[in-house]
């Protein structure tokens, strides 16, 4: 089983489980009933703003470029209605983490951003007291917006740069000028955000090892606290599929070289994609959110919510007209009392989710905790795990099963290899809109 991992290094990004392509229509489940027995002391609050100033060629996220102004205003009004329903029907006790993503949340002008944070606070969330992250783009970073985010208590800014070479971002279908990127970084460094994250993409058309490492060296030069390096995946219905420029797949070579460069510059590897500066100080909530066990409340079209037994969201699409239609349906929705799209997780899938989320993160899988929750041995239930130990792709110390440095390198093969057969079948049958 392990040998096949070396043949399919870039099988898929298992950042959550089950994958959204496994979601289907649900039979109008009651929102209060779904959450009645859930723990609500350290929830993750996520708000999705599906708007951007441009649609990048590689992007398969739920977002549209340059929507009409009235759509954004109507969307924010609907977010407020949804938040009110969540407050009434779920009554979250406290949040352990907050994230605002998209899309590009800073596509909103600062008055709209202010409304967004009013909605967050009406839910009882307090950004100044818990880790709070907002996604931005170089083109939408302004002093006015950053001042507002800082005043609201945001402590992490994540900016997608992708490459510091204009020809490479152009090949990705993103008309971005370097002067804009550097100006945004210079401005960000003037604010006391605890963490500035920069996203980079490797495997771009025309990219060489030298040009790729130039981009990595630039983020190191700016001394940002966090770096995410993403392999290029060419997804259906994205603009980049029309380019069809065949080239050698050097992604693994590029990844390994970037990893060594970041480690030598004082970063630690948290996951295959995530590298953090050692010693950075982040806000700690009264009770920290853990992705394996705590729930997530998502607001907005495209946002996902997780209870222990049900994952749900709006429908998902990539094509502009279909995304627009889903957003319009969201805005026109009369209430948010029921859940009609997602997946119900049986006990086996709940256990599998715990394993996948734990194994792919640098902290690893706590075998004793798993056994106390599910009353059986994870190493017996998942044959791949002992195989990873034998191959030195994982270690077992003090009851923690953890991927080694080499194991992290193969995360995009290990994650999908742990998917159940029913979930694989649902993903295969999913028809992308």
Automatic annotation (TrEMBL):
Gene Ontology MF, one: 4 iron, 4 sulfur cluster binding
Domain named Radical SAM core: residues: 37-268
The organism's place on the tree of life at top rank: Bacteria
Matching InterPro entries: Coproporphyrinogen-III_oxidase, Elp3/MiaA/NifB-like_rSAM, rSAM, rSAM_horseshoe, rSAM_sf
GO CC annotations, alphabetized: cytoplasm
GO terms under biological process: porphyrin-containing compound biosynthetic process
Protein name (database record): Radical SAM core domain-containing protein
Organism: Niastella yeongjuensis
Lineage: Bacteria, Pseudomonadati, Bacteroidota, Chitinophagia, Chitinophagales
């Amino acid at each position: 089983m392990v040998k096949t991992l070396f043949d399919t290094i870039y099988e898929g990004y298992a950042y959550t489980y089950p994958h959204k392509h496994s979601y289907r229509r649900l039979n109008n489940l009651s929102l209060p009933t779904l959450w009645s027995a859930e723990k609500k002391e350290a929830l993750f609050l996520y708000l999705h703003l599906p708007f951007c100033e441009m649609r990048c060629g590689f992007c398969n996220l739920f977002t549209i470029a340059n929507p009409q102004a009235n759509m954004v205003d109507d969307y924010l009004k609907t977010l407020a209605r949804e938040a009110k329903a969540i407050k009434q029907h779920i009554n979250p006790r406290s949040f352990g983490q907050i994230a605002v993503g998209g899309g590009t949340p800073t596509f909103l002008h600062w008055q709209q951003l202010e409304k967004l944070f009013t909605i967050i606070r009406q839910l009882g969330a307090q950004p100044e007291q818990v880790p709070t992250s907002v996604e931005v783009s170089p083109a939408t970073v302004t002093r006015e917006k950053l001042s507002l985010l800082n005043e609201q208590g945001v402590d992490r800014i994540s900016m997608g740069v992708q490459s510091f070479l204009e020809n490479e971002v152009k090949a990705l279908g993103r008309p971005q000028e370097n002067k804009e990127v550097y100006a945004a970084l210079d401005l960000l460094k003037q604010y006391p955000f605890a963490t500035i994250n920069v996203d980079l993409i490797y495997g771009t058309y025309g990219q060489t090892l030298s040009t790729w490492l130039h981009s990595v060296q630039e983020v190191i030069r700016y001394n940002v606290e966090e770096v995410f390096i993403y392999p290029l995946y060419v997804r259906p219905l994205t603009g980049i599929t029309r380019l069809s420029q065949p080239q050698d797949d050097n992604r693994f070579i590029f990844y390994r070289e970037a990893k060594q460069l970041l480690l030598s510059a004082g970063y630690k590897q948290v996951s295959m994609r995530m590298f953090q500066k050692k010693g950075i100080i982040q806000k700690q909530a009264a009770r920290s959110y853990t992705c394996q066990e705590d729930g997530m409340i998502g607001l907005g079209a495209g946002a996902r919510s997780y209870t222990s037994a049900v994952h749900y969201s709006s429908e998902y699409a990539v094509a502009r007209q279909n995304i627009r239609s889903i957003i319009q349906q969201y805005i026109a929705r009369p209430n948010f009392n029921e859940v009609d799209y997602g997946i119900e997780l049986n006990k086996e899938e709940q256990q599998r989710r715990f394993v996948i989320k734990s194994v792919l993160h640098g902290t690893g899988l706590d075998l004793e905790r798993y056994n106390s929750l599910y009353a059986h041995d994870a190493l017996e239930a998942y044959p791949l795990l002992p195989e990873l130990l034998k191959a030195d792709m994982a270690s077992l110390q003090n009851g923690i099963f953890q991927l080694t440095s080499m194991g992290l390198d193969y995360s995009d093969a290990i994650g999908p290899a742990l998917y159940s057969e029913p979930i694989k079948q649902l993903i295969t049958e999913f028809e992308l809109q």
